[in-house]
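Quick check before the chapter quiz. The format below is the same one you will see on the exam, so make sure you can read both the input and the output lines.
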Amino acid sequence: SVHRVTLQDALDQGFLWKVQTKLRADDPRMQMDEAAYFDYQRSRSPDEETFRQEYMCEPSDDASAFLSYDLIATGLYDRAVEWETALEAAGALTIGVDVGRVKDLTVIWVLERLGEVDYTRRVITLQNATFEAQEQVLYELLALPNVRRCCIDNTGIGRQFAERAAVRFGWKVEPVTFTPAVKEELAYPLRASFEDRTIRVPEDDAIIADLRSIKKEHTASGNVRFAADRGPGGHADRFWALALAKHAGKTLGVVGSFHAFSGTEAAHSFASARQQRRTTRACLG
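Here is the expected output.
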């Protein structure tokens, strides 16, 4: 038989009192009543869908999700994997930035391309951070010689952020203005990466909730629209940062390890190639 107990059911049966008997006296939950505790757990969930599934026994509807749980699971790192490796020693890096300020997060997602697979190396979330502070974090990454491309949300408040980065770092930065057509161009290659198992992302509740939050809808005129509910964890900001990072690597192809040559190494390499051409011409002459 199926036994169903929601958070509300548990609270009605004295669950909070049992929890409070195990808490320290200074724990803020000691001052909560059942309604406050319910709201507390709800606010801690990445989004409403996760809360209703985990606490209210309401299965999520994978049919409406652009990325299903099963599909996302194909790209998850094992929790034991140390995925935040040293960026200076990494291969070719691409970066995606979804810009927020107050309501939404700014998310900076860094991918490393090894062979055909994009490995997540950093997921940086910034909330209520000044643009100056956000720029400082991003510019430290853009200064790395193995960063090949960075795509930045150029919509709304992101426009000046993207423009300033483009002025400072030139060809490394590509401002991307979100339109329905552009979002479609970003979203489908990301889904294909999960389908082809050529992407790795952390097994993190907030990340999974963001990836799951995108819904593909059809407008009255027949156009495709990608939408997401805004929750405590943002507005699918991680999804779009990852999609932008993936988009930034569209011209990389299959790559191996990346070596950033010093000025001396580059000079020696150029001189060697020039001497080889001279020798070849002499032999042919």
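If your answer matched, good. The two ends are 90 Å apart (CA to CA).
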